[in-house]
Amino acid sequence: MHLTLLAFDWVLLLEKAVLILIIISVSLLVAMYETWGERKVAAFMQDRRGPNRAGPGGLFQPLADGLKLFMKEEIIPTNSSRLLFVLGPGLAMLTAMMTSAVVPWSSHFHLFGRDISMQIADVNIGILYIFGVVSMGVYGIMIGGWASNNKFSLLAAIRGASQIISYELAMGLAIIALLMISGSLSLRTIVEQQQVGHYYVLVQPLGFLIFLVCSFAECNRTPFDLSEADSELNMGFHLEYSSMKLGFYLFSEYVNVFISSAVMATLYFGGYDIPFVNDASLAQHWGQNPVAILQIVSLFGKVLIFIFFFMWVRWTIPRFRYDQLMKLGWHVLIPLALFNMLATGAFVLWRG
Amino acid sequence: MQPLTSRAKAVDRKPMNLWEKMYIPAIAKGMSITFGHMFKKKPTVNYPEKKRPFSPVFRGLHVLNRDEEGRERCTACGLCAVACPAEAITMEGAERMPGEEKLYREEKYAAKYEINMLRCIFCGLCEEACPKDAIYLSETFAPANYTRKGFIYGKEELLIPNPVTQPAEFAQARGGGSEAPRG
């Protein structure tokens, strides 16, 4: 017993703990500045200036917002179910954070004589893990809406749940086509294949488009923000929430945007691969560590472009009506994804 | 039916064709419009740092004027109060004592002069009524205040600084407007 304990790689544990800490704080930081970015992008698209009072260019605005949310009175409605009411935002945040575990942020660093992988867990079923966790994300909305004991919230929660379930199907079918080509469910393997070959968006443009639309729906972002629909449902599932519990819901949405951007970049745009450069030969010239840093920068560049795209769409396209949403999901995206899957399968068989 | 204007447009209610049903061209068009707006000039004026210039005929806060020797011009005749449609002006006259010739231009002066800025409609009739060029509307407006009392401006707030003893403040109070009070 003692021997097995000693044989365990304790440094690995420490390394992973530090990595988890870094990734969680980075995703929170990115989510924080996404709120700032969203307001700036919205303002610029509407010929306004956006937040510019707190700090240079309004950069401290997220801090001020966070402080405000913390100072607000925390109200738990009398007729709500207390446990679930508190659990809802936590669950939303947890599921938003958990997805980051399988995303490879860079190849690896060579420090202290060890190869430190920049991925919390290289699970060989990475994509399935993402799907599992993302589907759990609906519990945050559902529990929050149910526990509020408010008809608007409940309606919004049901809308959100049915929307996420409908769009997950199309998303899964779009991914299956990608998996047929890659032959692996591990995100790191998929990125390594793209480093050698070309980005999968070139092979799977239709699949990417379907995945993109579905990830908008999964994140509950406009044009699919039916579960918060401020004009119809009066903020929907977080109607009864206040203070930092509301902040958690809003924050988890931004974390979701960040993570799903990272997943999209990883699956279709080569992940941490530096575009137009052969990473392996660069690593031989410059050493592994600088290249690993460049790869992180490259991934974050791609992620930022996606985040901007999320905001750009939000401030352009109005919300779908509920029947239009369902029609788009079931009548358009799923048949398209099925067609894409069949075509890809036929192509793979034809190529042998 | 005859269109009322030349800009009338018939609404197209034809069912959408396949290309339109794909939404993607329409979405791309919309997104190009919003992206184009990112680089447009913003009409916002950054208020506290940058102020829009007032027009020379702007009617703002009142100023009680002094002559070039720094004597108050107001003689408390009450014509401004009579002219005021909002009844915002009250005053009390007093007789100039010997030795006060440096302070007041004529034998009678306003011991108390109050304008209620909440009542005032900034019409400028007081300025027109004044036979002594004693009251002017400047190019500023009343700042916010916490109490109603704070909006009743007395002589301390209204009087322009003395051009003889405080020339710098006087110049600042006069400002750069073309219609600034003549000293």
Brief descriptors of the model:
heterodimer; A: 352 residues; mainly alpha; 2 strands; 70% helix; B: 183 residues; Alpha-Beta Plaits; three-stranded antiparallel beta sheet; two-stranded antiparallel sheet; 5 strands
In short:
The complex is a heterodimer of chains A (352) and B (183). Chain A is mainly α. Chain A has 14 helices and two strands, in the order H-H-H-H-E-E-H-H-H-H-H-H-H-H-H-H.
Write down the overall geometry of chain A: globular
Q: What percentage of residues of chain B falls in helices of 4 or more residues?
A: 10-25%
CATH class of one domain in chain B: Alpha Beta
- Structural class from helices and strands of chain B? alpha+beta
Radius of gyration of chain B: 28 Å
Approximate helicity band of chain A: over 70%
Q: Any low-confidence stretches of chain B, pLDDT <50, length ≥5?
A: 177-183
What's the overall geometry of chain B?
elongated
Total number of helices of chain A: 14
> What count of structural domains of chain A?
1
Q: Describe the biggest sheet of chain A?
A: 2 strands, antiparallel
Structure notes:
The complex is a heterodimer of chains A (352) and B (183). Chain A is an all-alpha fold and 352 residues long. Chain A has helices at 2-7, 10-45, 61-71, 82-98, 126-147, 151-182, 187-196, 200-203, 205-218, 230-233, 243-268, 279-286, 288-314, 322-351, and strands spanning 108-111, 114-117. Chain B is an alpha+beta fold and 183 residues long. Chain B has a domain at 62-174: Alpha-Beta Plaits. The longest helix of chain B has 14 residues, at 24-37. The A-B interface holds A 41, 44-49, 52, 312-313, 315-317 and B 27, 30-31, 33-35, 37-38, 40-44, 46.
